[in-house]
């Protein structure tokens, strides 16, 4: 069992930056894939960044070049650095963790999810 807690959301102006954190506890050694998703009102949930152990991270086209996913193994924390933020980045952001089975066989809603943290980009 893995538990995830997101933090770091808030209100920022367009062009600003935020760093989201996802603190993980439990069976961290079982996790193969870490990811950040977001969902805005009226929109489908979308994956914005994914980090696979031993591989390069991947990003949605809408955030590529602006967002960076990283992991601090010593602190068991996943991060999402968000730069040059735009109003369309406004959403609730969720951390997700999948073990090998969930990553290779289970559906897109599999794994463990955090409670979400709100990001609002507005003047």
Low confidence ranges: none
Task: State the major sheet.
Answer: 7 strands, mixed
Strand content: over 45%
Tell me the radius of gyration.
14 Å
Rough shape? Answer: globular
Helical proportion, percent range: under 10%
SSE order and pairing:
Blueprint: E1 2-7, E2 10-12, E3 18-26, E4 31-39, E5 46-52, E6 58-59, E7 67-72, E8 77-82, E9 91-99, H1 100-104, E10 112-113, E11 117-121
Parallel strand pairs: 2-11
Antiparallel strand pairs: 1-3, 3-8, 4-5, 4-9, 5-6, 7-8, 9-10, 9-11
What do these coordinates show?
By secondary structure, this protein is mainly β. It has one helix at residues 100-104, and strands spanning 2-7, 10-12, 18-26, 31-39, 46-52, 58-59, 67-72, 77-82, 91-99, 112-113, 117-121. The strands form 2 sheets. Strands 2, 4, 5, 6, 9, 10 and 11 form a 7-stranded mixed β-sheet that branches. It has a 4-stranded antiparallel β-sheet with strand order 1-3-8-7, with no helix packed on it. The longest helix is centred in the C-terminal third of the chain and has 5 residues, at 100-104.
Brief rundown of the structure:
The chain is mostly beta strands.
Keywords:
11 strands, four-stranded antiparallel sheet, mainly beta, 1 helix, seven-stranded mixed sheet, 123 residues, globular
